[in-house]
Specification:
- Residues 52-211 form the Band domain.
- By secondary structure, the protein is of the alpha+beta class.
- Among the domains are: 16-23 and 33-95, no CATH class; 98-203, Band 7 domain (Tetrahydropterin Synthase, Chain A), CATH 3.30.479.30.
- 54% of the residues lie in helices and 21% in strands.
- The chain is built from ten helices and eight strands.
- It has helices spanning 2-21, 28-44, 50-53, 129-134, 139-155, 160-165, 167-181, 201-242, 245-260, 273-281; strands at 54-57, 61-67, 70-71, 80-83, 89-95, 99-109, 115-126, 187-198.
């Protein structure tokens, strides 16, 4: 379906361009007379008139020539040299390079009723100079205004979590919408990027408190799991020591050795009950 839509759009664009360019025959008899007089005037005033007739456009520009108010057959001219007739012809230069502009921060009410401020960047270029001149007054201003409204419309269908996590999807959706809308103007939207999403201060504090509480909850769970694992290890160690009473005395000695390694410490030496039983019997 996408390929069929693109083919239909391309066909319609070519038909519109052809209709605009093939208008020389509509200037009428008076028009042709004026063109003849202009040509005669140019020939009479040679070589001075040559400086008025020769025009140059740069590599990244195209010239749309109007003859008696109608677009000249053949469409855009350039780059390089082209000729115009004095008095009857005029031309408009169109820049074909990629143009970049910032979308001003837009206050948007999301789907979950949260107000956020979002801005972005749009990259576009003039794909068809004839349509960009003939079909719209100011293609650049129209594209800028359309980008602002499209940004608000697209973000209005998303909730806050989607805006924060799915920026690429939102940018792609905006690019498709803008490209479809500007196709009749001869404009090609190449790329859209979401720059920044600004949240209200109260919402930032609430999200920070929520994140902190979530981290504390995870820390408590991890600490509880550590205590449980330590308890299981102590239980297993006690079972091992219970099998050999002498192991407990060796553990006492290891504890004393650890304590003695530190200075300025008071050592309490526990005596095993087995040693005391001999004195109790006597």
């Amino acid at each position: 379906m996408d390929n069929e839509d693109r083919a239909m759009k391309e066909t319609r664009r070519r038909e519109r361009q052809s209709a605009l360019e093939n208008t020389d025959s509509d200037i009428g008899l008076c028009g042709w007379m004026l063109v003849g007089l202009s040509l005669l005037l140019m020939l009479v005033t040679l070589p001075l008139s040559i400086w008025m007739c020769i025009k140059i456009v740069k590599e990244y520009e195209r010239a749309i020539i109007f003859r008696l108010g109608r677009i000249l057959r053949g469409g855009a001219k350039g780059p390089g040299l082209f000729f115009i007739l004095p008095c009857t012809d005029s031309f408009i230069n169109v820049d074909m390079r990629t143009i970049t502009f910032d979308i001003p921060p837009q206050e948007v009410l999301t789907k979950d009723s949260v107000t956020v401020s979002v801005d972005g960047v749009v990259y576009y270029r003039v794909q068809n100079a004839t349509l960009a001149v003939a079909n719209i007054t100011n293609a650049d201003a129209a594209t800028r205004l359309l980008a602002q409204t499209t940004l608000r419309n697209v973000l209005g269908t998303k909730n806050l979590a989607e805006i924060l996590s799915d920026r690429e999807e939102i940018a792609h959706s905006m690019q498709s919408s803008l490209d479809d809308a500007t196709d009749d103007w001869g404009i090609k939207v190449e790329r859209v990027e979401i720059k920044d999403v600004k949240l209200p201060l109260q919402l930032q504090r609430a999200m920070a408190a929520e994140a902190e509480a979530s981290r504390e909850a995870r820390a408590k769970v991890i600490a509880a799991e550590g205590e449980m694992n330590a308890s299981r290890a102590l239980k297993e160690a006690s079972l091992v020591i219970a099998e050999s009473p002498s192991a407990l005395q060796l553990r006492y000695l290891q504890t004393l050795n650890t304590i003695a390694a530190e200075k300025n410490s008071t050592i309490i030496f526990p005596l095993p009950l087995d040693m005391m039983q001999a004195f109790i019997k006597h």
